[in-house]
């Protein structure tokens, strides 16, 4: 009686299949997935900054300086809320941590101009009464945008801020004051400049040196030299709300990747109006809805491998798609959030799938360009690419096609850029600094204590400050 020949799977298990296992390849480019994973890991290693004692002290010193400066701005004319809540995000506006337009921003480069960058949202006005419905005047605006009437606030607030408003007179004789993002930004820049001028008249030992103060559109960018570090702070005047806007209410009815991982209360604790207008909007009146506070919470639910792919992809597209300014890293962030909703959590949790995620993000971005469609994650009916011309989207789509054809080469370029930035930073540290901050080892403490004890303590101070919202993104 003849034995049946073993099937292919059985043969393989019995060692009868002599064909070598073929490496996993990317069909489009022919790149080895294993090599792409290694390149992403190398990029992550060079892109992530470790904080030693000295660097942690410098971060804390810069933060204290900025917060003290804002306290002095508040005292100038009492415009800013006395008890304010800031949102501090790791990464500058150019990194896409907030949905703002990049067209009017000067180009700053890590390594050349700064070593670490942050975005600080500073409420000029707060509407934090949870019992009051969040009503926004969207009659004059595109989706995701709104005018803000000061009729929502008391007479004292109107009196303080009416010089930063545009005035609309109605037929019935009533006057309506609309909070102007451009006028608020002008006032904020002037106030910060006055305060910094006063501070610099009486410099104190260990105080950061202000290397640059610039108004970039409606954003105030400050570069501080602190010890051996240069910190970029993009300071954004905003309007802060508790609760959730009605225009995004339907989003809460859908299923999302964060369901069961964090509570809805954490996600919808508040939102902002940031100083940015739509393509055809009126710059003096129109604000943009921002869900930066919610995004901080959602980021906790994203796997490390997907975040690594996102950071690598962002590094590639920031330079590649910089001209003309059409695609922001914030668009890529939105696509990542949509991917989290679309794909199974156990798939996205795979530690060795960073290469697949990188290729997928490139594919998603190219698909959005070709179709000129990138829905806002929180307000899907808002298409963030709607205003782009066919010529612009096709130009960027072709550039992305070159990335997709050779992702390994573009990753190597991104790695070289971040390594070069790190070399510039180390060179500056070796040359010394214009500002002297006492070394944390010079306090007469026990030299046998672990080196990272002070760093950990200062990291905690940086991230836990009572009386203010102070959150870091990594």
TrEMBL record:
<dbReference type="Pfam" id="PF03281">
    <property type="entry name" value="Mab-21"/>
</dbReference>
<keyword id="KW-0808">Transferase</keyword>
<comment type="similarity">
    <text>Belongs to the mab-21 family.</text>
</comment>
<protein>
    <recommendedName>
        <fullName>Nucleotidyltransferase MB21D2</fullName>
    </recommendedName>
</protein>
<dbReference type="Pfam" id="PF20266">
    <property type="entry name" value="Mab-21_C"/>
</dbReference>
<dbReference type="InterPro" id="IPR046903">
    <property type="entry name" value="Mab-21-like_nuc_Trfase"/>
</dbReference>
<feature type="region of interest" description="Disordered">
    <location>
        <begin position="431"/>
        <end position="452"/>
    </location>
</feature>
<dbReference type="GO" id="GO:0016779">
    <property type="term" value="F:nucleotidyltransferase activity"/>
</dbReference>
<keyword id="KW-0548">Nucleotidyltransferase</keyword>
<dbReference type="InterPro" id="IPR024810">
    <property type="entry name" value="MAB21L/cGLR"/>
</dbReference>
<keyword id="KW-0597">Phosphoprotein</keyword>
<feature type="domain" description="Mab-21-like nucleotidyltransferase">
    <location>
        <begin position="136"/>
        <end position="298"/>
    </location>
</feature>
<comment type="function">
    <text>Probable nucleotidyltransferase that catalyzes the formation of cyclic dinucleotide second messenger in response to some unknown stimulus.</text>
</comment>
<feature type="compositionally biased region" description="Polar residues">
    <location>
        <begin position="431"/>
        <end position="442"/>
    </location>
</feature>
<dbReference type="InterPro" id="IPR046906">
    <property type="entry name" value="Mab-21_HhH/H2TH-like"/>
</dbReference>
<feature type="domain" description="Mab-21-like HhH/H2TH-like">
    <location>
        <begin position="325"/>
        <end position="400"/>
    </location>
</feature>
